[in-house]
Amino acid sequence: MKAQSCPYLKFEDVPLRVSEAAGETLADHSVALGRPVNANATKFEIYAGGALVRKGGRFGVLTAGHCLQKRGPKIVDGSPGGDALVLIVQRSHRVVIPPKALVARALGVPKERELEPDLAFLEILPGPHLRALKALAPFCSLDENPLAMEQEYGKAGRPLTVIGFPEGLHQAATAGREGRKIIKHLGFFYGIKKDGLSERDGWDYIEASDVFSGKNEPDAFKGVSSAPLWGLQITGGKNSRHYALANFALIGMAFLQVRITKSRVLVRAHFIKSIYDRAWKKLTS
User: Fold this and answer.
1) Which pick of 93, 135, 188, 248 has the fewest CB atoms within 10 Å?
2) Taking the model in full, what pTM does it have?
């Protein structure tokens, strides 16, 4: 990937309306994960978010590992098993992946008394279910050079958005005998800060904080701790009213929120080197 010559805006120079529009676009590139609660999966519950990715010849969903421990497909590392996976793709399409077509793989497992790393890959095996999913949505390639991706999207000041599916926003609606699930996303917008970047044991991390007060605080953050981070390249400027999302890329995966104070929440995520390289080192089966 060659360096871009176009002067992209820093986070502080991007108008809120442009950030929100970018968030709407990236919501269609993020997926909600759920599990069926009846036999034919017409009823389901959402428990996490993620992104459709491919690494080499593997295709599947990248998400936070802890989200699979209680309600997600069992991590079996190489053998199909566990529950079916319900995916909400592009905010409107429901795709059910049966256990026989799914392998849940642990990419990063927290050590005892530690909260990191925390990353999992739900691999979708070749077959009709994968072909149907490919027809609905693109898979982000994680075969890019992480150093080049860092240069393009990971420098201090660059904007990013975190797209999650908080449980507190989901609704069930009925009309006569018909029922439907209303799935809502929530976008968080940040600028990359140099002091928010760190690396431990070959894993790199990014942290950002939100300050909430009163009405603008979400009812629940469950579902956001597995949200993908999207790096944004936005063009425009002070002398132009025209702004555009020129490009974007998957640059991380959130796995933890920490309540620092009553009104401040810290979001921690895996960053570029982790998801493009480090996470795949031990995946051989």
Assistant:
1) 135
2) 0.85
